[in-house]
Design a protein that fits this description.
By secondary structure, the chain is α/β, with parallel strands linked by helices. About 35% of the residues lie in helices and about 20% in strands. The chain has two domains: about 5-60, no CATH class; about 65-370, TIM Barrel. The protein contains 13 helices and 15 strands. The structure holds S-adenosyl-L-homocysteine and iron/sulfur cluster.
Length: about 375
Protein backbone atom coordinates (compact mmCIF):
# COMPACT_ATOMS: atom_id res chain seq x y z
CA UNK A 1 0.00 0.00 0.00
CA UNK A 2 1.20 3.51 -0.77
CA UNK A 3 2.04 5.64 2.23
CA UNK A 4 0.77 9.11 3.01
CA UNK A 5 3.32 11.91 2.56
CA UNK A 6 2.28 12.83 6.10
CA UNK A 7 3.74 9.56 7.40
CA UNK A 8 6.84 11.44 8.38
CA UNK A 9 8.90 8.48 9.58
CA UNK A 10 8.34 6.55 6.35
CA UNK A 11 9.06 9.58 4.17
CA UNK A 12 12.24 10.44 6.08
CA UNK A 13 13.55 6.89 5.82
CA UNK A 14 12.91 6.77 2.09
CA UNK A 15 14.50 10.18 1.55
CA UNK A 16 17.46 9.13 3.67
CA UNK A 17 17.99 5.94 1.72
CA UNK A 18 17.84 7.86 -1.55
CA UNK A 19 20.18 10.59 -0.30
CA UNK A 20 17.48 13.30 -0.51
CA UNK A 21 17.58 16.05 2.09
CA UNK A 22 14.75 16.02 4.69
CA UNK A 23 14.49 19.79 4.30
CA UNK A 24 12.21 19.14 1.31
CA UNK A 25 9.58 17.52 3.53
CA UNK A 26 8.03 20.75 4.89
CA UNK A 27 7.95 22.12 1.33
CA UNK A 28 5.91 19.11 0.25
CA UNK A 29 3.56 19.44 3.23
CA UNK A 30 3.00 23.15 2.63
CA UNK A 31 2.01 22.48 -0.95
CA UNK A 32 -0.29 19.65 0.15
CA UNK A 33 -1.97 21.82 2.74
CA UNK A 34 -2.64 24.48 0.13
CA UNK A 35 -3.66 22.02 -2.60
CA UNK A 36 -5.02 18.92 -0.85
CA UNK A 37 -4.96 15.84 -3.00
CA UNK A 38 -2.92 17.47 -5.76
CA UNK A 39 -0.52 15.50 -7.89
CA UNK A 40 2.82 14.98 -6.18
CA UNK A 41 4.49 16.00 -9.45
CA UNK A 42 3.04 19.48 -8.94
CA UNK A 43 5.10 20.19 -5.83
CA UNK A 44 7.63 22.79 -6.99
CA UNK A 45 11.41 22.73 -6.70
CA UNK A 46 12.18 19.18 -5.62
CA UNK A 47 15.18 17.20 -6.89
CA UNK A 48 14.13 14.87 -9.71
CA UNK A 49 14.94 11.74 -7.67
CA UNK A 50 12.35 12.91 -5.12
CA UNK A 51 9.58 12.96 -7.73
CA UNK A 52 10.39 9.41 -8.81
CA UNK A 53 10.39 8.18 -5.23
CA UNK A 54 7.21 10.01 -4.29
CA UNK A 55 5.43 8.70 -7.35
CA UNK A 56 6.32 5.09 -6.63
CA UNK A 57 5.79 4.90 -2.87
CA UNK A 58 3.59 7.76 -1.64
CA UNK A 59 0.22 9.43 -2.14
CA UNK A 60 -0.59 13.05 -1.44
CA UNK A 61 -3.67 11.88 0.48
CA UNK A 62 -4.27 8.21 1.20
CA UNK A 63 -7.76 8.82 2.59
CA UNK A 64 -10.74 10.33 0.82
CA UNK A 65 -13.41 12.68 2.05
CA UNK A 66 -16.72 10.91 1.50
CA UNK A 67 -19.07 13.51 2.88
CA UNK A 68 -19.33 16.59 5.04
CA UNK A 69 -22.51 17.36 6.93
CA UNK A 70 -23.14 20.71 8.56
CA UNK A 71 -25.46 21.13 11.53
CA UNK A 72 -28.42 23.49 11.06
CA UNK A 73 -26.83 26.17 13.21
CA UNK A 74 -23.60 25.78 11.18
CA UNK A 75 -21.56 25.38 14.34
CA UNK A 76 -20.61 21.78 13.70
CA UNK A 77 -19.41 19.99 10.58
CA UNK A 78 -18.92 16.26 10.53
CA UNK A 79 -16.46 14.82 8.03
CA UNK A 80 -16.71 11.21 6.97
CA UNK A 81 -13.33 9.98 5.76
CA UNK A 82 -12.59 6.66 4.08
CA UNK A 83 -9.19 5.14 4.72
CA UNK A 84 -7.10 3.16 2.29
CA UNK A 85 -8.07 -0.15 3.90
CA UNK A 86 -11.74 0.48 3.16
CA UNK A 87 -12.77 1.40 6.72
CA UNK A 88 -14.01 4.85 7.66
CA UNK A 89 -13.60 7.34 10.47
CA UNK A 90 -15.23 10.61 11.39
CA UNK A 91 -13.75 13.93 12.32
CA UNK A 92 -15.84 16.78 13.70
CA UNK A 93 -15.23 20.50 13.32
CA UNK A 94 -16.69 22.86 15.94
CA UNK A 95 -16.69 26.60 15.41
CA UNK A 96 -16.81 29.11 18.21
CA UNK A 97 -16.83 32.85 18.13
CA UNK A 98 -14.36 34.15 20.66
CA UNK A 99 -16.37 37.28 21.30
CA UNK A 100 -19.87 35.94 21.17
CA UNK A 101 -19.22 32.69 22.95
CA UNK A 102 -20.74 30.51 20.31
CA UNK A 103 -20.39 31.14 16.61
CA UNK A 104 -23.69 32.30 15.33
CA UNK A 105 -24.41 33.17 11.73
CA UNK A 106 -21.66 34.65 9.56
CA UNK A 107 -18.02 34.38 10.57
CA UNK A 108 -16.47 37.64 11.71
CA UNK A 109 -12.83 38.17 10.94
CA UNK A 110 -10.55 37.09 13.74
CA UNK A 111 -13.43 36.07 15.94
CA UNK A 112 -13.99 32.50 14.91
CA UNK A 113 -11.75 29.74 16.16
CA UNK A 114 -12.31 26.13 15.31
CA UNK A 115 -11.62 22.91 17.08
CA UNK A 116 -11.20 19.62 15.31
CA UNK A 117 -12.03 16.32 16.98
CA UNK A 118 -9.95 13.59 15.36
CA UNK A 119 -10.07 9.81 15.35
CA UNK A 120 -7.00 7.73 16.14
CA UNK A 121 -8.34 4.20 15.56
CA UNK A 122 -11.13 2.48 13.69
CA UNK A 123 -13.17 1.11 16.59
CA UNK A 124 -11.64 0.59 20.01
CA UNK A 125 -10.80 -2.47 22.06
CA UNK A 126 -11.45 -0.94 25.47
CA UNK A 127 -15.15 -1.80 25.39
CA UNK A 128 -16.56 0.94 27.64
CA UNK A 129 -20.20 0.02 28.10
CA UNK A 130 -21.62 3.48 27.39
CA UNK A 131 -19.60 4.09 24.21
CA UNK A 132 -20.75 3.43 20.67
CA UNK A 133 -17.20 3.13 19.34
CA UNK A 134 -16.45 0.57 22.04
CA UNK A 135 -19.33 -1.58 20.83
CA UNK A 136 -17.65 -1.97 17.42
CA UNK A 137 -14.56 -3.63 18.85
CA UNK A 138 -11.12 -2.82 17.48
CA UNK A 139 -10.69 -2.76 13.72
CA UNK A 140 -7.41 -0.98 12.93
CA UNK A 141 -4.95 1.72 13.90
CA UNK A 142 -4.63 4.93 11.91
CA UNK A 143 -1.15 5.85 10.69
CA UNK A 144 0.25 9.24 11.65
CA UNK A 145 -0.44 10.35 8.09
CA UNK A 146 -4.07 9.29 8.30
CA UNK A 147 -4.47 11.26 11.53
CA UNK A 148 -2.87 14.36 9.98
CA UNK A 149 -4.97 14.02 6.81
CA UNK A 150 -8.07 14.68 8.95
CA UNK A 151 -6.56 18.05 9.79
CA UNK A 152 -5.73 18.74 6.14
CA UNK A 153 -9.35 18.10 5.14
CA UNK A 154 -10.74 20.10 8.05
CA UNK A 155 -8.59 23.10 7.21
CA UNK A 156 -10.46 23.38 3.92
CA UNK A 157 -13.65 24.10 5.89
CA UNK A 158 -12.34 26.21 8.75
CA UNK A 159 -9.11 27.50 10.14
CA UNK A 160 -8.40 24.91 12.83
CA UNK A 161 -6.81 26.24 15.99
CA UNK A 162 -7.42 23.38 18.41
CA UNK A 163 -7.28 19.63 18.02
CA UNK A 164 -8.77 17.13 20.46
CA UNK A 165 -8.27 13.37 20.26
CA UNK A 166 -11.82 12.53 21.24
CA UNK A 167 -13.09 10.89 18.11
CA UNK A 168 -13.01 7.18 17.50
CA UNK A 169 -10.47 5.10 19.32
CA UNK A 170 -8.11 5.16 22.26
CA UNK A 171 -5.20 7.39 21.23
CA UNK A 172 -2.76 5.96 23.77
CA UNK A 173 -3.32 2.49 22.28
CA UNK A 174 -1.88 3.86 19.03
CA UNK A 175 0.98 5.61 20.73
CA UNK A 176 3.72 5.98 18.12
CA UNK A 177 1.31 7.22 15.44
CA UNK A 178 -0.22 9.64 17.98
CA UNK A 179 3.18 11.07 18.92
CA UNK A 180 4.28 11.46 15.33
CA UNK A 181 0.95 13.01 14.27
CA UNK A 182 1.08 15.58 17.08
CA UNK A 183 4.70 16.41 16.31
CA UNK A 184 3.73 17.05 12.69
CA UNK A 185 0.75 19.18 13.74
CA UNK A 186 3.00 21.41 15.82
CA UNK A 187 5.64 21.83 13.10
CA UNK A 188 5.65 23.85 9.87
CA UNK A 189 3.32 24.30 8.02
CA UNK A 190 0.57 23.43 10.55
CA UNK A 191 2.20 25.08 13.54
CA UNK A 192 -0.52 24.39 16.08
CA UNK A 193 0.42 25.21 19.61
CA UNK A 194 0.80 22.02 21.70
CA UNK A 195 -1.25 23.82 24.34
CA UNK A 196 -4.15 23.69 21.93
CA UNK A 197 -3.95 19.94 21.49
CA UNK A 198 -5.76 17.64 23.93
CA UNK A 199 -5.32 13.89 24.18
CA UNK A 200 -8.20 12.09 25.85
CA UNK A 201 -7.55 8.65 27.31
CA UNK A 202 -9.35 5.96 29.21
CA UNK A 203 -6.19 5.77 31.35
CA UNK A 204 -3.45 3.65 29.76
CA UNK A 205 -0.99 3.92 32.63
CA UNK A 206 2.29 2.96 30.94
CA UNK A 207 1.60 5.45 28.15
CA UNK A 208 0.65 8.27 30.56
CA UNK A 209 4.00 7.68 32.26
CA UNK A 210 5.93 8.60 29.14
CA UNK A 211 3.51 11.06 27.54
CA UNK A 212 5.05 14.20 29.00
CA UNK A 213 8.54 13.29 27.82
CA UNK A 214 7.33 12.57 24.30
CA UNK A 215 4.77 15.38 24.00
CA UNK A 216 5.52 18.18 26.46
CA UNK A 217 2.81 20.86 26.83
CA UNK A 218 0.04 18.83 25.26
CA UNK A 219 -3.12 18.67 27.40
CA UNK A 220 -4.18 15.44 29.00
CA UNK A 221 -7.85 14.58 29.50
CA UNK A 222 -8.69 11.44 31.44
CA UNK A 223 -11.99 9.62 31.10
CA UNK A 224 -12.41 8.79 34.77
CA UNK A 225 -16.21 8.39 34.86
CA UNK A 226 -16.29 6.81 38.32
CA UNK A 227 -15.04 7.71 41.79
CA UNK A 228 -14.04 4.18 42.82
CA UNK A 229 -12.63 0.99 41.34
CA UNK A 230 -15.87 -1.03 41.61
CA UNK A 231 -18.08 1.35 39.65
CA UNK A 232 -15.29 1.96 37.17
CA UNK A 233 -14.97 -1.78 36.49
CA UNK A 234 -18.73 -2.07 35.99
CA UNK A 235 -18.82 0.50 33.21
CA UNK A 236 -15.24 0.31 31.88
CA UNK A 237 -13.69 -3.14 31.54
CA UNK A 238 -10.26 -1.55 30.98
CA UNK A 239 -10.29 -0.46 34.63
CA UNK A 240 -9.30 -4.01 35.60
CA UNK A 241 -6.04 -3.75 33.71
CA UNK A 242 -5.52 -0.14 34.78
CA UNK A 243 -6.72 0.08 38.39
CA UNK A 244 -7.86 3.41 39.75
CA UNK A 245 -5.19 3.61 42.50
CA UNK A 246 -2.38 3.08 40.00
CA UNK A 247 -4.00 5.49 37.55
CA UNK A 248 -4.12 8.22 40.21
CA UNK A 249 -0.42 7.64 40.95
CA UNK A 250 0.37 7.98 37.25
CA UNK A 251 -1.62 11.23 37.08
CA UNK A 252 0.23 12.57 40.10
CA UNK A 253 3.53 11.70 38.41
CA UNK A 254 2.38 13.36 35.20
CA UNK A 255 1.36 16.50 37.03
CA UNK A 256 4.64 16.71 38.91
CA UNK A 257 6.33 17.02 35.54
CA UNK A 258 3.85 19.03 33.53
CA UNK A 259 2.30 21.53 35.94
CA UNK A 260 -0.73 21.85 33.65
CA UNK A 261 -4.30 21.21 34.70
CA UNK A 262 -5.47 17.71 33.95
CA UNK A 263 -8.97 17.49 32.50
CA UNK A 264 -11.15 14.88 34.13
CA UNK A 265 -14.06 13.65 32.04
CA UNK A 266 -16.98 12.26 33.99
CA UNK A 267 -19.99 10.92 32.14
CA UNK A 268 -23.17 11.33 34.19
CA UNK A 269 -25.11 8.05 34.32
CA UNK A 270 -28.39 8.03 36.16
CA UNK A 271 -28.21 6.04 39.38
CA UNK A 272 -24.76 4.64 38.55
CA UNK A 273 -22.21 7.34 39.37
CA UNK A 274 -24.23 10.54 39.82
CA UNK A 275 -25.24 10.49 43.49
CA UNK A 276 -24.11 12.99 46.10
CA UNK A 277 -21.86 10.44 47.80
CA UNK A 278 -20.09 9.86 44.45
CA UNK A 279 -19.37 13.57 44.18
CA UNK A 280 -17.78 13.48 47.64
CA UNK A 281 -15.72 10.41 46.75
CA UNK A 282 -14.58 12.09 43.54
CA UNK A 283 -13.77 15.32 45.36
CA UNK A 284 -11.56 13.45 47.84
CA UNK A 285 -9.94 11.38 45.08
CA UNK A 286 -8.90 14.49 43.17
CA UNK A 287 -7.83 16.57 46.17
CA UNK A 288 -4.11 16.24 45.46
CA UNK A 289 -4.33 17.10 41.76
CA UNK A 290 -4.80 20.30 39.77
CA UNK A 291 -7.79 19.37 37.68
CA UNK A 292 -10.78 20.69 35.80
CA UNK A 293 -13.71 18.31 35.94
CA UNK A 294 -15.95 18.14 32.91
CA UNK A 295 -19.33 16.55 33.59
CA UNK A 296 -20.58 14.97 30.38
CA UNK A 297 -24.27 14.34 29.79
CA UNK A 298 -24.60 10.74 28.59
CA UNK A 299 -25.77 10.41 25.01
CA UNK A 300 -27.88 7.31 24.57
CA UNK A 301 -26.24 4.93 22.10
CA UNK A 302 -29.21 2.89 21.03
CA UNK A 303 -31.66 0.44 22.44
CA UNK A 304 -29.01 -1.97 23.69
CA UNK A 305 -27.77 0.58 26.18
CA UNK A 306 -28.81 0.00 29.76
CA UNK A 307 -27.86 3.52 30.88
CA UNK A 308 -29.91 6.67 31.24
CA UNK A 309 -28.73 10.27 31.34
CA UNK A 310 -28.67 11.89 34.77
CA UNK A 311 -31.32 14.46 35.52
CA UNK A 312 -30.31 18.12 35.33
CA UNK A 313 -30.96 18.28 39.03
CA UNK A 314 -28.44 15.52 39.79
CA UNK A 315 -25.85 17.10 37.51
CA UNK A 316 -26.30 20.46 39.24
CA UNK A 317 -26.04 18.87 42.70
CA UNK A 318 -22.89 16.98 41.69
CA UNK A 319 -21.31 20.12 40.33
CA UNK A 320 -22.22 22.06 43.47
CA UNK A 321 -20.50 19.55 45.76
CA UNK A 322 -17.29 19.51 43.69
CA UNK A 323 -17.19 23.28 43.43
CA UNK A 324 -18.50 24.28 46.82
CA UNK A 325 -16.92 21.69 49.10
CA UNK A 326 -13.80 20.63 47.21
CA UNK A 327 -13.14 23.85 45.34
CA UNK A 328 -12.70 22.00 42.05
CA UNK A 329 -13.34 23.83 38.82
CA UNK A 330 -16.25 21.90 37.34
CA UNK A 331 -17.99 22.48 34.04
CA UNK A 332 -20.90 20.77 32.34
CA UNK A 333 -20.31 19.89 28.70
CA UNK A 334 -22.72 21.59 26.36
CA UNK A 335 -24.55 19.55 23.79
CA UNK A 336 -23.95 20.53 20.19
CA UNK A 337 -24.33 19.13 16.73
CA UNK A 338 -26.98 16.61 17.70
CA UNK A 339 -28.85 16.94 14.43
CA UNK A 340 -25.84 15.49 12.60
CA UNK A 341 -24.66 13.07 15.29
CA UNK A 342 -21.47 15.05 15.58
CA UNK A 343 -20.59 13.26 18.72
CA UNK A 344 -17.03 13.02 19.81
CA UNK A 345 -16.53 9.90 21.81
CA UNK A 346 -19.45 8.13 20.36
CA UNK A 347 -18.72 7.92 16.72
CA UNK A 348 -19.57 4.69 14.98
CA UNK A 349 -18.94 4.61 11.31
CA UNK A 350 -20.59 2.08 9.16
CA UNK A 351 -21.25 3.36 5.69
CA UNK A 352 -24.15 1.04 5.02
CA UNK A 353 -25.79 1.64 8.34
CA UNK A 354 -24.82 5.00 9.70
CA UNK A 355 -26.65 5.11 12.93
CA UNK A 356 -27.39 8.33 14.75
CA UNK A 357 -25.74 8.12 18.06
CA UNK A 358 -26.85 11.35 19.66
CA UNK A 359 -24.39 14.16 20.07
CA UNK A 360 -21.97 14.92 22.82
CA UNK A 361 -20.42 18.26 22.31
CA UNK A 362 -16.81 18.68 21.84
CA UNK A 363 -15.19 20.33 24.76
CA UNK A 364 -16.47 23.87 24.47
CA UNK A 365 -15.69 24.27 28.11
CA UNK A 366 -12.14 22.95 27.91
CA UNK A 367 -11.44 25.12 24.91
CA UNK A 368 -12.97 28.14 26.57
CA UNK A 369 -10.37 27.90 29.28
CA UNK A 370 -7.72 28.90 26.83
CA UNK A 371 -9.17 31.95 25.11
N1 LIG B 1 -10.82 6.74 24.01
C1 LIG B 1 -10.66 8.04 24.53
C2 LIG B 1 -11.06 9.14 23.58
C3 LIG B 1 -12.31 8.95 22.76
S1 LIG B 1 -13.79 8.95 23.66
C4 LIG B 1 -11.38 8.18 25.87
O1 LIG B 1 -12.14 7.30 26.23
O2 LIG B 1 -11.13 9.16 26.54
C5 LIG B 1 -14.02 10.70 24.01
C6 LIG B 1 -14.94 10.97 25.19
O3 LIG B 1 -16.32 10.69 24.89
C7 LIG B 1 -14.59 10.13 26.41
O4 LIG B 1 -14.57 10.89 27.57
C8 LIG B 1 -15.73 9.14 26.41
O5 LIG B 1 -15.89 8.57 27.66
C9 LIG B 1 -16.90 9.98 25.97
N2 LIG B 1 -18.08 9.19 25.58
C10 LIG B 1 -18.10 7.93 25.09
N3 LIG B 1 -19.36 7.51 24.90
C11 LIG B 1 -20.17 8.53 25.28
C12 LIG B 1 -21.60 8.70 25.34
N4 LIG B 1 -22.43 7.74 24.96
N5 LIG B 1 -22.07 9.88 25.80
C13 LIG B 1 -21.21 10.86 26.18
N6 LIG B 1 -19.88 10.76 26.14
C14 LIG B 1 -19.35 9.60 25.71
FE1 LIG C 1 -12.67 3.36 23.59
FE2 LIG C 1 -12.85 5.81 24.67
FE3 LIG C 1 -15.04 4.52 23.74
FE4 LIG C 1 -13.85 3.66 25.96
S1 LIG C 1 -14.85 5.66 25.68
S2 LIG C 1 -14.55 2.37 24.27
S3 LIG C 1 -11.71 4.05 25.48
S4 LIG C 1 -13.33 5.23 22.54
Amino acid sequence: MARSVFDRGALRTEFDNAGISPRFIPIIWKHMLQNPGCDLDDVPSLPSSAYTLLRSKFRSMTSSLISSIESKDRVTTKLLIRLQNGTSVEAVIMRYDTRLGKYNGKPRSGGVRSTLCVSSQVGCKMGCKFCATGSMGFKSNLSSGEIVEQLVYANQFSHIRNVVFMGMGEPLNNYSALVEAIQIMTEFPFQLSPKRITVSTVGIIHAINKLHDDLPNVNLAVSLHAPDQDIRCQIMPAARAFPLGKLMEALQGYQNKSDQNIFIEYIMLDGVNDQEQHAHQLGRLLEMLKVVVNLIPFNPIGTSSCFKSSTDQNVARFQKVLRGIYNIRTTVRQQMGQDISGACGQLVVNLSEQRSAGGASLLTDIEDLRI
